[in-house]
Fold:
Amino acid sequence: MKPSLLPARSLGAREVRALAHPLRLRMLESLLDGPATASMLARELGESSGATSYHLRALAAAGLIEEDLDRRKGRERWWRRDPSRVGLISSAPAEDPEYDAAVALLESTMIGRDEEALRRYIACREDGEHSDEWRETAFIGGWMVYATRDEVEELSEYVVRWLRARRKPEEDREPGTPLVYVTYRALPQTPTADNN
Structure:
């Protein structure tokens, strides 16, 4: 089966819908760095602790995160995630309209994240907020290539390995390393007169 950026079918429509929220996706990404509280996530993500607390409970109800009871102090609740629950997995197409609708919602959320990241980048570039070095390094591009499913799987696996190697806790990062949004797509195209 081919790798997919979608959650495993075993999660079910309810769990996939829980993922299909931009703030919840950002919180799950932050929890890859280690356990955190709602207040810590609120500061990091520029949200209210009420919002992060609400969305943490929704993620927990969907089984995507769990409370870290070893860190609990009084009313302060710590949360952690299992990175194997979300990410590149092998999955067969679902034959469940509710599940398909949930996956479509998640895909829409991911596309929205891409568009927002691009909008922020262009606005910052136009305002001169990026250094000359980053203006030369930042990249937007796309190509039409002929590739087999095996070749696309090989590329996807390489990209994900490269990205996962760069998910490091703050103490392991080079000081001043900026956050970079990286997106990747490999989409089969319907043949047209231009690419026949």
User: Anything to note?
Assistant: The CA atoms of residues 144 and 195 lie 9 Å apart. The chain has a mean pLDDT of 83.
